[in-house]
Design goal:
34% of the residues lie in helices and 26% in strands. It is of the alpha/beta class.
Length: 231
Amino acid sequence: MELIRIRGVEKQYKNGVTAICNLDLSIKKGDFVFIIGSSGSGKSTLIKLLHREEKPNKGRIIIGGIDVAKLKNKKVYKLRRKLGVVFQDFKLLPRMTVYENVAFALEIFGLSKDEIRKKTIKALELVGLKNKVKQFPDQLSGGEQQRVAIARAIVNGPKLLLCDEPTGNLDPDTSFGIMKVLEVINKMGTTVVMATHDKEIVDKMKKRVILLEDGKLIKDYEKGTYSHEVA
């Protein structure tokens, strides 16, 4: 079943740069998709369009039945409840503990303390950080900080997880550890869409690979590699 439908989408920034050009794309529920391409190809813009940080100039973006492009600003929360986002730079709150950083994402939903605790511990257990709940971000390695960010993104059980260069600041071994976590989340039913330039990860994972170039869809392979796509 289709989770994301993109039809005729164009995005041009105010400086005149066209980041996405007449893009058509469908992503099914449960897919794991890599978005690849050189710097400036439109990868990050596509991720921003999917979680409504940016709006398209033309076209339609439907996620789980919600028309993202037409969504009024005061209704964006309805979309954000359906998805989680992981960034390259973690975006953790430095004065909050690991537990508090993850639990904070649930507090806006008005859940009971017991329910928040249950979901938070479950998410931290999933990313392998149940024993780090009382530590602060600056006491963690980069890989551990990214795991906290992933736990925060999935704590509400989203149908879709968007990742923008989540391994960009990490060494290869740490990056593969993060990918194993994302693969487990995907196998539990969450659709994962990840923008990356990490050749080794794409080659090893053998997932669906979408290549963008100058904002245009160039290639789309079910079990592609970075080398194959860019060559």
